[in-house]
Amino acid sequence: MVDNSTSQVIHLDHVRKQYGSFTAVEDANFTIGRGEFFAMLGPSGCGKTTTLKMIAGFEQPTSGSVFLEGVDVSTVPPYKRNVNTVFQQYALFPHMSVADNIAFGPRSKKLSESEVKKRVGDMLDVVRLAEFADRRPSQLSGGQQQRVALARALVNYPSALLLDEPLAALDLKLREAMQIELKRIQREVEITFVFVTHDQGEALTMSDRIAVMSQGVVEQIGTPVDIYKKPESLFVAGFIGSANLLPSTVSQFDAAGGTVVLNGGGTVTVGRDNVASDVTWATGEEVTIMLRPEHLHVTVERPAGDALQAEVTDVVFQGSAVRLVLQLDNGTEVTAIVGGDADLPFLRPGAAVWLSWLATSPYVLDGWPDLAGATTTNLESIEAAL
Ligand code: ADP
Ligand code: MG
Description:
alpha+beta; Rossmann fold; CATH 2.40.50.140; 2 domains; 6-stranded mixed β-sheet; 6-stranded antiparallel β-sheet; about 25% helix; disordered N terminus; binds adenosine-5'-diphosphate; binds magnesium ion
């Protein structure tokens, strides 16, 4: 292994946070690299803010240690840590100009006025607000104010910038624009960003890596593609994107792969690569087949190979795609996404169709889900299922 200790900006070493008898964060143990855009993603209450506060120093771990740039800072107060935090409520100084808001940090560090000017100018360029330097915050739009807050937090070049749901208050269009803008700014300044969000789309859009959390536990850390394609738990499979989760039973599985029988009937052939790890399952074990909606093919005729019979219950035209809700023979609801330009006159509610997939598409997970069928990306329903 290469020695990349200098590339490690943040390291959590078996960090645990307990409030009374309640465990808010359990054994967080991971490293965030220099220049990484790292998201912490999970439903409300899973411990994201608490983890961020321990990195910033606003909370102390009950056990374990927090390292910044290789130094144990577990007992170091926030103002002595070289990290900055941007909260959802970014309090700009209302009576100061944009430039003075950004200059506040460097001035309190007693940098020379020429250095302050240079840094403020650089930051105004990074956030593309040079022509607004003399305005007051109240004369800016919400997105512009957000960028001032970012510039103010970045101007002293912290080791890392911590962002706690910074876009949650913005409306959808502005939020999407700011996601791209934030990512661009992060690439430009090359500072580590730790970005907390409950919005999986946001995390997938922006991050180099994502830590998916549930109930105080980091369930999986990986690139957006890894986490989407190879979820390591049912929670991650259901929380990231949308997934059809079909409870099944192993009929045979060895080093070459095997076959799994859906609980409602139907056989799914599974290759060796379609599983999370090097597991082998015994006959009769409870597993779940994950089939992403975009991997389902819908036909009237029965195709060769594995296929399931289903009835169309709903057809939703979404412009670039058509979202189909279907019911399997056993009553399980599944979702399929087909191309919007596909000529599919047979796809009406009540139509009997066949669902099939490429051999590489089904993915096997341990255990059975609480809710069979399609998981939505709707937070309420995910939380209700927890
Ligand atoms: P998230 O940011 O993921 O929504 P938090 O980290 O804010 O979650 O909270 C995690 C859990 O810890 C929640 O159940 C919350 O109620 C609890 N919690 C957070 N702060 C405190 C505190 N100061 N005292 C007691 N419980 C807390
Ligand atoms: Mg929070």
